[in-house]
Specification:
The chain is α+β, with helices and mostly antiparallel strands and 110 residues long. The chain has helices at 27-36, 48-56, and strands at residues 4-8, 19-23, 62-67, 92-99, 102-108.
Length: 110
C-alpha cells in the first residue's frame, strides 16, 4: 500500500512503518510537493487553524462536516465556509445525513 505522508513544521526522526515525514513550512510548498508526486486526493486531519487556512486559500473542493448533538466543553471555533446568499451558487450540498443525533453534511464546489 501507499505510504502515509505526514507534513510537519518540526523535524521528525520517527521511523513508523509505512509513514514518510516531510518537513514543510507552508501550504503552497505542501501542495507543490503533492502535485510533484502526482497526488490528486488528500484527506486532511488537523485542527481548526489548518482547516480554516485551507478554506481561506481556496484549496478545497469537497468538505464533510460532522456535527454531534452535544458539546464536551467550550472548545475552539470551527472553521467557517462563509456561505452567503451572494455566493451560495458556488457550493452544492449533495447530502445531509442524520444518524443518532449526528449530522453529516457533504459539501462540494461545482
Amino acid at each position: 500500500s501507499a505510504k502515509t505522508l505526514i507534513f510537519t513544521q518540526k523535524e521528525q526522526n520517527s521511523a513508523k512503518e509505512n509513514c514518510q515525514w516531510i518537513q514543510g513550512n507552508n501550504l503552497e510548498e505542501i501542495m507543490q510537493e503533492l502535485h510533484r508526486r502526482g497526488i490528486q486526493r488528500l484527506l486532511v486531519e488537523g485542527g481548526s487553524r489548518l482547516h480554516q487556512s485551507l478554506i481561506d486559500s481556496d484549496l478545497w473542493d469537497e468538505i464533510r462536516i460532522e456535527t454531534a448533538p452535544w458539546k464536551i466543553g467550550p472548545g475552539l471555533q470551527a472553521p467557517q465556509l462563509k456561505i452567503s446568499p451572494e455566493n451560495s451558487h458556488h457550493f452544492v450540498c449533495r447530502e445531509t445525513i442524520t444518524c443518532s443525533g449526528h449530522k453529516i453534511q457533504h459539501i462540494f464546489k461545482p
